[in-house]
Specification:
255 residues, alpha+beta, five-stranded mixed sheet
């Protein structure tokens, strides 16, 4: 019985090891086409973005010249608005594609998060005031972050831009950046009227909108929050959203 037990254990271990090696070898071969497809998709978005820049620039230039000759023409104004929106969409798609790369930021550095937050938030203070909205902020001093400065600036800018765009008339917008347990927390909240709060996490999906009817008036591209989550994850953090009653929404990023 003892010999049978040892032989059975030996055969079992050898079989498990053999199966593990086979799975390791074949899984790499099975995943290789999928990884190739992902790389091709990333390359396609980047290449298409660069190719689209030339005709878009030509359209914008032609529209500007036409506007000089036919000042106040509503059709020309509409072409310029849509061309500007398309330019922003292409730029965001290319930037998001780069964030999906294995090493999107080859050269990270230590920088003052407090200073970056002050610089990025300043234009939105005046923008919110111009739109008749109440803006307040609290940025803790002495916060230092190791990462990519420009991407963190973009993260804060996207959150504040969304808050200004989607807050209700005369609403309140608040920015809070503070340190907690060795991490840096970025909170942006605004008052609003949410039609549904059951699945807010889908806001981080590309091109997802809670209310499609507002997309034309707000002018957003629908991928800004996807970039926020990608930037947060690249910096070893996470992004989340919550709303207690549908009257106020809060985005939190932990870096």
């Amino acid at each position: 019985m003892r010999s049978l037990l040892f032989v059975s254990l030996a055969i079992g271990l050898v079989s498990l090891l053999t199966v593990f090696i086979l799975i390791l070898l074949f899984s790499r071969r099975a995943v290789r086409p999928y990884m190739k497809m992902i790389e091709q998709q990333k390359r396609f978005i980047t290449d298409a973005g660069h190719e689209l820049k030339t005709p878009i620039t030509s359209i914008v230039t032609s529209a500007d010249i036409a506007a000089m000759e036919h000042e106040g023409d509503e059709w020309i104004d509409n072409i310029r608005r849509q061309a500007g929106r398309l330019t922003k969409l292409v730029g965001d798609l290319v930037a998001l594609s780069r964030l999906d790369e294995e090493v999107p930021f080859p050269e990270k550095s230590r920088f003052s998060m407090s200073e970056v937050a002050w610089e990025t938030a300043e234009p939105f203070v005046h923008l919110a005031k111009a739109k008749g909205k109440h803006y307040s902020q609290h940025i803790e001093e002495g916060l230092i972050l190791y990462g990519d400065r420009s991407s963190v600036q973009r993260l804060i800018s996207i959150l504040l831009d969304n808050a200004v765009r989607y807050s209700d008339d005369g609403g309140e917008i608040q920015l809070r950046i503070y340190g907690r347990r060795g991490r840096i927390c970025v909170e942006v909240s605004n008052t609003c009227d949410l039609p549904d709060i059951s699945d807010l996490d889908r806001l981080f999906d590309r091109f997802y909108r809670l209310d499609e009817s507002r997309s034309a008036t707000t002018g957003g591209t629908g991928i800004g929050l996807s970039m926020v989550r990608a930037i947060a994850e690249i910096h070893g953090g996470k992004a989340s959203v919550q709303s207690a009653d549908g009257k106020k929404i809060c985005f939190m990023v932990v870096l």
